[in-house]
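Data card: per-record layout.
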Amino acid sequence: MDDLVLVGRVARAHGNRGQVIVNLDTDFPDERFRVGAVVMVGPSAIARVIREVRFHQGRPIIALEGIETMNEAEALAGAELKVPAAAAGTLPEDTYYHYDLIGCEVADRSGKPIGSVTGVEGTMERSRLVIAGSHGEVLIPLVAEICTEIDVARRRIVVNPPDGLLELNAAGGKS
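The structure for this 175-residue chain is written out next.
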């Protein structure tokens, strides 16, 4: 089976007809959550076709084939919704899938290691790299002015952080 890419998580059941509200993990909700699209649901990755979709306050409310009752929908709370990586499609230039960045080694322009990317938070417009560094977790905005070189093939990101950015979270003192 192809590698799967997370596109959302079931927040909770909605109504009494088996619908669920989805918390998004994609910057392309209209593409990922449309009638006829297939999502892999839960840890067993059961393929389910989306049979109804509407958006409310930016989140999709979907009905899945095979989920007909409120009890069945409630059982999906917290379930991850994924799509095959091959179906994810290509991105515009200078944009990346989160899974492409996770595991990349991060260094400053002088080559000094900062750490390894363990996650990406936020939307496409406001993404942050979550980096496990030698002095703790560091958050670095994913913007061209700071992330000056991203080489997914070599699993390497070069950053030019403004003064104080790396120290901001390094002591574990998030404010």
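Known properties of this structure: The longest helix spans residues 165-170. DSSP finds four helices and twelve strands in the chain.

See the next section for split statistics.
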